[in-house]
Amino acid sequence: MKDSIIILCGGGPAPGMNTVVCSVAKTFLSNGFRVIGLHGGYSGLFSKNPRTEDIDFFKADAYFNRGGSYLQMSRFKPTDQDFEENFNLALFQENNIKLLVTVGGDDTASTANRIAKFLEAKQYPIKNIHVPKTIDNDLPLPGNAPTFGFNSAKDEGAHLARTVYEDARTSGNWLIISAMGRSAGHLALGIGESTHCPMTIIPEMFNKTQIGLKKIVSLTISAIIKRKLLGIPYGTVVVAEGVFHDLDPQEIKDAGVSLTYDEHGHPELGKISKAVLFNDILDKEFKKLGLKIKTRPVEIGYDVRCQDPVAYDLTYCSELAMGVYELFEKGETGCMVYVDAAGESHPLYLKDLQGADGKIPPRRVNIEGGTAQNYFRHICHYITPADYEAAKKYVPNPEEFDFKKILGW
């Protein structure tokens, strides 16, 4: 029987999923392996009747450059009991599987770390290698290397935001954009910077003060008033959905938002429109201040996850896939594949990346770094002490809308 590998995809989709899976398939097929695709993410590993199918060259060649994921994904998270009682060892034994390839973000990587420990403890002759995916760009790769899918999502997000900005300019209104990013603001900042948005709000900005809805609202109003002083009656504000993760649950409840939580304990932000929520809160604040401003909500999220990957991710994902084979050939396991700027693949051992809880901590925006600081210094618009006197035309207390005072910078 041929040596085999099996591939699964966890979490949510990102541009390049098919590129990774199909490029892994092509690489291993060309080296004499059988390639098995596992549907349903990790749930398939803990099921007596997993849905699998062989991936041959023709299937891989037909899907490698498409968006979405041919292998059905899942956010299934195995329990300790699943590991002890439901791990489908027979799937590996009956198919002579030598390698498990997992593709996913931080949660999938954290589960891959548990898988690695489990396989080692049981001394099962199965290697596992993880491929880092997420449009949030929040896996801790060296040298600020992106996770695959991020650049494609940013490209489409910027395309949407440019159109929205043009609508704001044409109509003389403000549009409030919410961008995906569960625990980090990479995507929101990338969209805001690339479209010259006058205000982008991300969780990392609140490094010197506690995050709060009032502060988010005040930052938005700060940009609007500053542009009024500059004679610019329009603009956009990009808000990362991740700000919700750091908000006091009571504050969310007081805002009239009822959240449910997924199996990983994260608020299911996809079930509500963050843009609509912010827009409604802003509208109430405008009325309190007597400001006549029109704002409209726009959500950027699910529409950037399944698009066709741009050339960057087509190349990058192919290199990651080939890197999986290179690491496997060297006997590596329990690691995440990393490809450097020269195209060389390296192992990042999951056990070295884990936090005290065994999970892989997210990489957040370096708010003190040049990318963030230069954007906030030179592109953003907001109230400063020099604007206080002129700003009194619109608000009685301009200091409350001073960008640096709001953030404690």
Describe this structure in words.
There is one protein chain. The N and C termini lie far apart (64 Å). The protein is an alpha/beta fold and 409 residues long. It folds into two domains: 4-149 and 309-353, Rossmann fold; 153-305 and 379-407, Phosphofructokinase domain (Rossmann fold). Strands 3-2-1-4-5-10-11 form a seven-stranded mixed sheet, sandwiched between helices. The chain has a four-stranded parallel sheet with strand order 7-8-6-9, with helices on both faces. The chain is built from 15 helices and eleven strands. Strand 7 (199-201), helix 8 (213-229) and strand 8 (235-240) form a beta-alpha-beta unit. It is elongated and about 80 Å long.
Task: Please give a handful of descriptors for the protein shown.
409 residues, alpha/beta, Rossmann fold, 2 domains, seven-stranded mixed sheet, four-stranded parallel sheet, 15 helices, 11 strands, 14% strand
Rounded to an integer in angstroms, the radius of gyration calculated over CA atoms is: 23 Å
- The strand count comes to 11
Query: What is the multimeric organization of the chains shown?
Result: single chain
Mean pLDDT across all amino acids: 92
Distance between the termini: 64 Å
What would you say the CATH architecture of the largest domain is? 3-Layer(aba) Sandwich
Tally the helices: what do you get?
Answer: 15
Query: What is the structural class?
Result: alpha/beta
Question: What is the strand content?
Answer: 5-15%
Q: Helix and strand succession?
A: EHEEHHHEHEHEHEHEHHEHEEHHHH
Query: How would you write the strand order of the largest sheet?
Result: 3-2-1-4-5-10-11
Q: Describe the biggest sheet?
A: 7 strands, mixed
Global morphology: elongated
Q: Stretches where pLDDT falls below 50 for ≥5 residues?
A: none
